[in-house]
Predict the structure.
Amino acid sequence: MAGESDHIVAETAARIFADLADPQTINRAKNDAWKAPLWSAIAEAGLPLAWVPDELGGSGATLTDGFDILGAAGRFALPVPLAETLIAGWLLARAGITCPATPMTVAPARPHERVTLAANGTLSGSATAVPFAREARHIAVLAEGAAGTTIALVDSKDCRLGEGCNLAGEPADSVSFDRVKPLRGAAAPPGFDRTLLMLMGAIVRGVETAGALEAILSLSVAYANERVAFERKIGKFQAVQQNLARLAGEVAAALAVSGSAADALAQADGFDDAVFLEAAAAKIRAAEAATEGSAIAHQVFGAIGFTQEHVLHRFTLRMLAWRDDFGNESYWAAELGQRIARRGADEFWPLVASR
Amino acid sequence: MTLRFDPIRLPPECEKLRQEVRAFLAEEIAAGTFDPYRPGHGDSQNRAFSRRIGAKGWIGMTWPKKYGGQERTFLERYVVTEEFRVANAPVRLHFVADRQSGPILLKYAPEHIKLDILPRICRGELCFVIGMSEAGSGSDLFAAKAKATKVDGGFRLNGSKIWTSNAHIADYMLGLFRTSPPTKENRRHGLTQFLIDMKTPGVTVNPIIQMTGQHDFNEVVFEDVFVPDDHVMGEIDGAWKQATSELAYERSGPERFLETFYVLVELIRALGPDPDPRSAEGLGRLAAQLHTLRRMSVSVAGMLQAGKEPVVEGSIVKDLGTIWEQNLPHRVRELAAFLAPETGNRATLEEQLAFAMTVAPKLTIQGGTTEILRGIIARELGLR
């Protein structure tokens, strides 16, 4: 459960976002002038490296603090690589690597992609749809080699980038590693593998999605209480009320499951089936909520919500895009289903009831 | 409005209790008390089983000790409820009294009635029925017409209640009767809640058989039934204030999403250790959805224990949970469509699916329909 200090971190984050990342203001902006002041305020507050201990260059906050920051980032549809830098810092810190104070991202960001480490210490392979790769100065890479799993810090200039974008138009670039020499590298701790990185990414996206859903619920309720049709506020129509109640249900589900997974991870000694269930469920259910919830919100807003000038798409398109990062919901559902099947029918309830 | 679901972790005493409950249930299953694979077949009138549960201290377990309770937490009660539910143990005899009638008595009954009735509920001796709906009053509770007329020393009840689950085996009813007409300002005014001994002269119970073939529903007819003054629960004409306060308890429990859970377990057994991707994905999604509902429900229990009032969160759990448990047998049926004919437990799964699919339609009606719940949620959102 969140302690006092957690709220301070989350409140600091929310204040910075409200001042410098107002979705309406950014949506109207003609250029990227908002970006630099936003990032420097975030960096100044120690948010990007919240999950990195002091001695490795971070601000040494708890996992819970970091997830609170991400919930706030979701509520603002934050358009800078804060989540990615948090994950990158967390990954590098697993191997005791000192983190640079720059925007970072992480590779691979899809479960079936592999970067390999050769005996001479160079990295090869490629990763697709790496979020914000072109805006990241550094990339935290999880690489697999004969000697096991390695975590490496790479200068993004040393990689070949192919520009791409996600549904929301944010960078989602391919990154090719052609015998790239990392700036730093170290063995991952025993048992740490690609699955763990993907599970962390899954929880992060779940928490951000829940935040974005909270935002679209309050936007939608406010609009329904203001827009008049047939001489009534549309929020007075039962059909609209029932839809908004369903949206609240999706918001609640995403909040509960991602909050639970974040807490489970923060408390976990190791990764077991129970933590796997928490993390996979967070990604699956939050993604389902994103699908359902964005459709309902758009329905409430009608045509105006379908325009570039309205902020709704900043939330809905990001949520829909996040479904694909770090394993989509179908991938995690199949993985979870296989695990449950292997445990057997009589071990299913004990797993569900383990927390 | 901010939705809140604190990530509650069940404390160690809950896990210890869970193991005790599982051991008890395993013994009862071994002794043939009920068959966990055949939901709906357990003997609903098995009073001896309820007494054994009572003897364990698992009925009314959160209530004060002086009324027979154990003063344990809502989280402990939660664990007991969910373990009984997933085992398909027949608990209908005492469950209504444990979940809602007892708490109403605790709050509104005079001391001598509490001392008389609550310990008997805790011992598993009493079955309660809820008398709210009438032929012309279902979701619209405040349209109730059954009347209570003031007489010397009490009230005379006339009229009828319908869809009264377990009235045919119940010892007491908590029923809603009209003591005054509604007012212009408040159409909810004028209803009073009474504690009624079902053996009182003038009470007739007529069975109504459900589409599953089970007998659960009844019509209860009241003809000049006398109820003494001290059996009025709470404020005369003011029952509407009482009806809503218990909703978070009633609506967010594990029984609101686990009613058809057994088909999912049987599907896992049928699929075996290495399901094809379609089945694995379907199973994984259902597991993720179930896990989410349970974590929401546990969170509401934890917030209640902490003295908070998560009314909208509780309504959301029931809305999502009942729709999920209603849809579950149909999803399982689809996922089982390509099973090999010789799959070992196929007959069991098909029998369970047939039962679950016939039960399913009621799940989004009982205890507050989907539409009513969404109305409550919409009001909390600030839309009404």
Q: What stands out?
A: The mean pLDDT of chain A is 96.
